[in-house]
Design a protein that fits this description.
Chain A is an alpha+beta fold and about 375 residues long. Chain A contains nine helices and 20 strands. In chain A, the strands form three sheets. In chain A, strands 11, 12, 13, 14, 15, 16, 17, 18, 19 and 20 form a ten-stranded mixed beta sheet that branches. An eight-stranded mixed beta sheet of chain A has the order 1-10-9-4-5-6-2-3, with helices on both faces. Chain A has a two-stranded antiparallel ribbon with strand order 7-8. The termini of chain B are far apart. The chains are: A alpha+beta (about 375), B mainly alpha (about 300).
Chain lengths: ~375, ~300
């Protein structure tokens, strides 16, 4: 007898009994499984949309951090920065969005995680002008050199401050956080320090409106920081707020800063500009056809209106820069308003490609002109 | 409560303690291993006393033992601990161990008589019949894959010992179900054509995981609170860890998957060759008997392949 199929060499196993005729459980399992998979796929896709995985942690106002019932003023204290120079916190950060955190570099968990998440978020928000200040709670081990080395591992510039025990305690009290307590050293002389795990957020109005926990995720920071920076109520000086500042890399000691000035108050104008990084900071306007650039004494910002400074348009010209600006750096400019107030703006330096991408289209320019 | 008592936990879960290399004891892991081993051993001992163990039974014991070993290694310290609360990449490695090693080895460790007895006892034939269907197995395997990698699910389950156990159990179940159509103890229920076996394996284990793997790899921010806020392990940033995890999900199973596919292909080719040389079962059996008796000089007939097993 010949057969077409290959010889069956495997030991045959007894066939299982015929399938049961109970269709109900099977149908139920299939339906439940399909529903589960559908929900999973939908949820997975939605998770990748605007960091919505963190939605469950938002408070009632849509923030991932807490809003203080009463704003606290930006604290005033002077400590020593990582170059060994005195650092007047209130003066150096006045008018700027500032994130303040107390921690220590030997911290095994909270400090590196908090700093990494915050700085990684800021690194991905190059248009955001912000300062990050880290104050040690462990002055005996966190020397200025140690601070500089440790903070250098984060993706954006962080100001590291230290001081005497008394100075640091005073700074913590001024900021309204609990004073850190060092635990007893172990056999190897290592010890941990109990400290505040909150990130204090100061807005350009020199007030603290918000506080974030150390468990804030990077995606949550990225969700909130642009909103904080854009909130006219917190960033406004005389009703005027500057947002979205960025600058180009320097060439031959020159660069330009671009930003948007929004006025929620009465008619105002930018009547001057200075920069600690460039003695020759001036306001420049560009002709409508984009061919002529010239200095100007003022840029009007009418009530309810805005002045948009953008590549190939009006801008803040920086000449005689004291240092080269490369992508990732920041540069500070101070806008003087006709009302007498000043707006301090920290602009992040972006690449030439990023600058080119931000040149408004002719239609947009025309629309904005109207 | 003393530190010694605190150190003994039921199951791995998220912890805020920095990682250290001090071994931890997880009672639940050992209970689960016992639950896997003891009933199996009892059944096998009874079988040995009543019928004796065949070579297939002995191989099944070996496979089952390996499967239990992988379950234990994925659940216990250090891998289980690292994957539960520190590194997403290790979390993905655990998934691969459960689905690509522990699951199939446990299935291979189940003989047909043992499985039949178990299904009779638990009245599980209808569920078995459903799960052995390839399309159902694909859906279950990858449905669990997607579901157990949703950030809210991972963050929610990993936060508690019970949730972490559920996650591990789901992965083991998905590994068992995913391999059923290929290696179910009932050969008649297996996918028969080698090409369809290969297609099934590619779709079930190769193609589907690419999607969540790519999503995880190319996300610009860490997705999982558990792993983003975990005490850092070495110098890895959460995003580095996440990208490695995504890459592992996409390609980590390739060595096993393609080895199995290659084995199926080679086996099919050898069987095809054997068929060409021995056109009928009778001819083949005659050749085998002659070779065994020594009545046919070596070389006068094509070499007899070993009795296939597996």
């Amino acid at each position: 007898m010949s057969i077409d199929a290959p010889p069956q060499l495997e030991e045959p196993s007894a066939p299982p009994p015929p399938p049961a005729r109970t269709r109900g459980p099977i149908t139920l399992i299939v339906v439940v499984g399909l529903v589960l998979i559908a929900i999973a796929i939908v949820a997975f896709v939605r998770t990748g949309d605007d960091s919505s995985e963190a939605d469950g942690d938002r408070n009632a106002l849509g923030w991932h951090g807490g809003i203080l019932e009463g704003a606290k003023p930006r604290p005033s204290f002077t400590l020593t920065d990582s170059t060994g120079q005195p650092y007047d916190f209130a003066a150096a950060t006045s008018g700027q969005l500032t994130f303040l955190f107390f921690g220590y570099t030997h911290c095994p968990d909270i400090c590196p995680i908090t700093m990494a998440n915050l700085t990684s978020a800021l690194d991905q928000l190059p248009g955001t002008s912000a300062r990050v200040v880290f104050i040690t709670t462990d002055p005996s081990r966190d020397t200025p050199e140690r601070l500089k080395d440790w903070l250098g591992g984060f993706p954006v510039d962080v100001v590291g401050l230290t001081g005497s025990v008394a100075e640091l305690e005073a700074a913590q009290k001024a900021a309204g956080v609990s004073t850190a307590i060092a635990e007893a050293p172990d056999d190897k002389g290592e010890y941990t320090v109990g400290h505040s795990a909150s990130v204090l957020v100061y807005t350009p109005d020199d007030q603290q409106h918000m506080v974030y926990s150390s468990s804030t995720m990077q995606a949550e920071w990225m969700d909130d920081i642009p909103r904080i920076a854009a909130d006219p109520g917190w960033n406004a000086v005389d009703g005027v707020v500057a947002t979205g500042a960025y600058a180009g890399p320097s060439t031959a000691g020159q660069s330009a800063v671009y930003l948007t000035v929004v006025n929620g108050g009465t008619d105002n104008a930018v009547v001057g500009v200075t920069s600690p990084d460039a003695p020759g900071a001036t306001l420049h306007v560009t002709s409508n056809d984009g061919t002529t650039m010239s200095g100007t004494d003022s840029l009007d910002v009418p009530s309810g209106g805005a002045a948009v400074l953008s590549p190939a348009g009006d801008h803040v010209m920086l000449s005689g820069l004291s240092r080269d600006l490369v992508e990732g750096d920041t540069v500070t400019v101070v806008l003087e308003l006709r009302s007498g107030a000043q707006l301090t703006v920290v602009a992040s330096v972006v690449s030439y490609e990023a600058l080119a991408a931000r040149i408004p289209s002719p239609d947009a320019v025309e629309g904005a002109t109207r | 409560m003393s530190d010694a008592i605190l150190a003994v936990q039921w199951w791995c879960q998220t912890t805020t303690a920095p990682w250290d290399w001090t071994p931890k004891v997880y009672l639940g892991v050992w209970v689960m291993v016992a639950l896997l081993v003891v009933p199996y051993a009892v059944v096998m001992v009874r079988r040995a006393r009543s019928h004796g163990l065949t070579s297939r039974d002995k191989r099944a014991i070996l496979w089952y033992s390996l499967g239990v070993f992988f379950v234990w290694s994925a659940s216990d310290w250090p891998l289980g601990t690292l994957g539960a609360g520190y590194l997403l990449s290790i979390h993905t490695v655990l998934y691969l161990i459960y689905t690509m090693a522990a699951g199939p080895l446990l299935v291979l460790g189940m003989t047909d008589w043992m499985t039949r007895g178990m299904l009779d006892r638990i009245r599980g034939w209808s569920i078995y019949r459903l799960l052995v269907k390839p399309w159902v197995a694909v859906l279950v395997l990858n449905g669990i894959l997607v579901f157990t990698h949703l950030p809210p699910v991972v963050d929610g389950l990993r936060a508690s010992q019970f949730g972490s156990f559920v996650l591990d159990a789901l992965w083991l179940i998905s590994g068992v179900v995913g391999w059923l159509p290929i290696i179910t103890p009932f050969r008649g229920d297996r996918i028969k054509a080698p090409i369809w076996k290969c297609v099934y394996l590619f779709i079930a284990f190769g193609a589907f995981p690419m999607l969540p793997g790519a999503f995880i790899t190319f996300s610009g921010v860490p997705l999982y609170r558990v792993y983003e806020l975990a005490p850092r392990f070495g110098d890895w940033s959460p995003l580095d860890d996440q990208q490695l995890a995504g890459a592992l999900m996409k390609v980590g199973n390739i060595p096993i998957l393609w080895t199995v596919i290659a084995a199926i292909f080679v086996k099919a080719a050898l069987e095809g060759s054997r068929h060409n040389r021995y056109g009928t079962v009778e001819e083949f059996d005659e050749a085998r008997r002659a070779a065994a008796d020594g009545s046919v000089p070596a070389g006068s007939v094509p070499p007899i392949p070993p009795t296939p097993v597996g």
